[in-house]
Amino acid sequence: MLDLIMRDARLADGRRGVDIGVRGGRIAAVEPSLKAEAGQVIDAQGRLVTAPFVDSHFHMDATLSVGLPRRNRSGTLLEGIALWGELKPILTQEAIVERALAYCDWAVARGLLAIRSHVDICDPRLLAVDALLEVKKKVAPYLDLQLVAFPQDGVYRSAGAIALLQEALRRGVDVVGGIPHFERTMEEGRASVRALCEIAAAQGRLVDMHCDETDDPMSRHVETLAAETVRLGLQGRVVGSHLTSMHSMDNYYVSKLIPLMAEADLGVIANPFANMVLQGRHDTYPKRRGMTRVPELMAAGLTVALGHDSVMDPWYGLGSGDMLDVAHMAVHVAQMTGLEAMAACFTAVTDNAARLLHLDGYGLTPGCHADMVLLDAHDPVEAIRLRATRLKVIRRGQVIAQAPAQQSTLTLPGRPASVSFRRPPLA
Predict the structure, then answer these.
(1) N or C end of the chain, less CB within 10 A?
(2) Do residues 362 and 369 make contact, with C-beta atoms less than 8 angstroms apart?
(3) Which stretches make up the Amidohydrolase domain (predicted)?
(4) How far apart are the C-alpha atoms of 196 and 211, rounded to whole Å?
(5) How far apart are the C-alpha atoms of 122 and 263, rounded to whole Å?
(6) Residue 423: what pLDDT?
(7) Which pTM value belongs to this model?
(8) How far is CA 360 from CA 12, 356, 357, 368, in A?
């Protein structure tokens, strides 16, 4: 006797007519026509069932704070950083917790059950650190929240940042972060990469650095990050986030850089919303997109994920926590409109993101956690096209969110009474 069976599911790899059996919060079986009974049966009716969405790059300490204490009038990265500096002194732990919990509610409704959030440690109070550690405990039953110690103002540019970062790690923050391109000089940026990677190596931590988030083609800290990864034996444990300078680099240099990144097994996280609206601000025309070279990095075998980065905060005043919206934007910005390329963007907000977070028990195979999402779509491409409704969101075998299928009624002579935006799967 199983606790739950999801019948007649279609999986992201193309398998159809699959049943998923759940017992004790784990997936017990994945096979066609599962011969078993269960306390609860959900008929997927041939719709797509996927492991949960994963946001590999987010800033939960700032989320939903848009307009406080004022709006980002220019819409630029630097004004956003300045605005965050104005907001920090008036933040309260209670307000950060309240906004973060509200965002986690949005996330669950969207089938987003794992988030890696950077948390600013350049505040002697470590207010945001304590707030998000509290949030992490509160949401643990339904959402995996991984925290990155992020020196927003630079570890050398901000007095005492190294000590504050170490203290944040001691209190329970998971990952070492950095922002080398925001240090005062290129040399200090390189030194920060070395110092932060050494801290991570000494403590057995993962690394996730904001790296080269600039239009400057000479901002090449990812080169140092890859080299330090190899030197310290951190292959597969280090991520470079944003890497927007790669959009402006010449092809010859990139032809050398990407193999170095591959040697380091460096993870890459692009953030299409932020990269599109914050980069290229000094350009007239032609105007750069600013997003890193996602197709080329994927082709080289690197694990590439996509993040939302910001939702309604000083840097980005839009967003709703929908990772299908992120994938949809990436398809367009990176010109990944081939069928395999679009499917790769779906993988970048599911499996690839989970791999970079080193999530335990993620996936739809026997033994994995029984976490899954039933989408009102046939396949990953249709899910991206429609930003498909999350019909059921399941955590450890329990339905924790659900929504009705989208349907519009018509009153048109000679036409159907209702319309569905779903179409047969693309060949």
Answers:
(1) C
(2) yes
(3) 40-400
(4) 13
(5) 32
(6) 82
(7) 0.97
(8) 20, 11, 9, 8
DSSP 3-state assignment of 412? Answer: coil
Mean pLDDT by 10 residues, the chain (427 residues): 97 97 98 97 98 98 95 89 91 97 98 98 97 98 98 95 98 98 97 98 98 96 98 98 97 98 98 94 92 98 98 95 98 97 98 98 98 97 97 98 95 95 74
Could you give all domains of the chain from N- to C-terminal order, each with its CATH number? 2-51+363-409 (2.30.40.10), 54-357 (3.20.20.140)
Q: Which of 79, 213, 228, 382 does the annotation list as catalytic?
A: 213
Strand partners, 144: 114
Length of the chain counted residue by residue: 427
Respond yes or no: is residue 94 known to be catalytic.
no
Report the distance separating Cα 41 and Cα 193, nearest Å. 51
pLDDT at 75: 86
Q: For residue 356, give the 3-state DSSP assignment.
A: helix
Relative to beta strand 372-375, strand 175-178 is unpaired
Tokens of 328: 């949809």
Amino acid identity of residue 164, one-letter, is L
C-alpha 386/C-alpha 47 separation (Å) is: 13
Structure tokens at 367: 């033994």
What tokens does 405 get?
């299928």
